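In the previous chapter we treated chains in isolation. Here, by contrast, the input contains two separate entities that must be folded as one system, with a combined length of 624 residues.
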Amino acid sequence: MSASAVPQDPVTVAGTEAPLLVVDHLSKEFGAVKALQDVSFSVNAGEVVGLVGDNGAGKSTLVTIVAGVQHPTSGHVFLDGKPLDVATPAEARDAGIETVYQELALIEMFDMATNFFLGREILQKGIRQRLGVLNRRDMRRRAREKVSEIPAKFPNFDAAVETMSGGQRQIVALAKAAFWGGRLLLLDEPTAALGVQESAGVLDMINELAGEDRAMIVIAHNLQHVWSVCTRILVLRRGYLVADLDKAETTAEEVVAYITGAR
Amino acid sequence: MGIDRGGETGSDRLAASPEAESSGAAALGMSAGTALPMRPLRWLFRPDNARLLVLIALGVIFTFASPFFLTTNNLINVLMNAAVVGIVAAPATLLLVARQVDISIGSAVGFAATTLTVVAESRFGLGVAVLAAIGAAMGIAAINAVAITKLRVNSLIATLGTLAAFRGAAKLIGDGRSIRLDGFGFLGRSRFAIPGTDVRLPVAVLILLAVALLFSLLMRYTRYGLHMYAMGANPKAARLAGVSLERNVVIAFMLSGLSVALGSFILVSSIGATAPTTGMGLELLAITGVILGGASLSGGRGTIGGTLVAILILAVLDNGLTLMRVTSFWQEVVRGGLLVTAVAFDQLRLRRGKPEVRFEL
């Protein structure tokens, strides 16, 4: 399917290039509950989009559909003009969508390197590959290289993730997403339950990851955090996309008004 | 990775003895960590070392308590008694690591063993009987696997059902009789002379060691093993990382079925007959061993080495107490007390925030 065949909603398309992600008339129902209703928008490469809304507004539902974990009741998701409709988490990941789930991103008992490669392990060569024998040395080396690139410091590379602070865990999860070179990063509440200083570290990391060819969608409750990393803000309310705002042209008051339904 | 499945945490690494560190590192083909002076007390209380210590202590106590304990024949007896339990406890460890449990193994062994003797005494003969018994064990495993992965029945419930059903089925096909089987002594009664010594190890013990080695390699070095630990430690995160929980659980139950078949052959071979009670209680012995060996019902923890040492502890305990003429009633009490004490000790350590060692052999 070519990009021109994608029906595009008037509220979207900020730039002139073909958008990286197109969400097209997406709806999701859970029985009688309408979690998402006819949501359409697009995201260009290089954008960091904040997704805000009250509890139950449909933010997580939207993210899990784009990540291939859930399937929409109707509507479509396109990445680079290609439909992601039948995607599983693995397919979405192979297509370049990396997701950092709130508190679910990592296996606490495992160390960083094992977490980086879980589900995408490097195996030994030859017959041992067919037996599924892990190549720990390579996985360890590559994870160590990646971790040395990020500014945050870790006291012990080999420590189990459960010995780390919440902020360190989020940074590890972000580093993992970046490690796999995701073109679209979905971050579900990256600063939830973090202290001020830890949030700052995570937000720095997000700014660092924002790049020309990478787009990000960040779910956050804290508007201040959204403001410090995003260029655009989408507001969901009761399953509807009620606003698509350029950060430069809006105010926190306006966003809050959309969230609460005052506008 | 230094830590396998999150095995040693950072401070454990510091507490680890240099020997343990270097051997582990060499085995995993990675650079050795910083070797810091070991702290003897902490080293002793690392669970795997504590278990070995208990085993050695029991050995010493029984050596003094009975002149018959420390003899080649008696020790071989102990190993022989541990063989069948150990063989079925290996997949039980693998399953519990992934938060699954198979308590049908006692009845599965009984049903497979009875299938073997019933078919063998019919006109089909021993060859067909062996195949039928393997089929029976795998069939039970398949029922468990389907109930758990397709029908979403909790593994404890599903295998509780097959535990009851196949005990009954074993009595049905055997008419509740004891059935003799001659000419099937190789697995259970033959011995293998270790070259250069006059020790003759039972073939069953060699099979136990081979099974333990295979499962240990599977759990330590392969992607499958890693995924099983991940599923137990955090099933949601594992699924989101692309781990196929259903497929892995099915494979584990199939391995359990194979071990059940092997265990039932050794049991029938060494006894020379089946009874309606064959294999009864085996599941409890095996799971006691797995838990005593360091696995947790909440998953993510446990090793074959730990299970093996724990099963040896149980076997030595039974043997030693018997030699001391303690009745089997007391043996059961001691076994149960040991299990609860060991787990309580583990919990105490965890609550005091001591980092966990989950991975050793």
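Residues 1-44 of chain B form one domain. Chain B has 16 helices and four strands. Compare these points with the single-chain example from earlier in the chapter.
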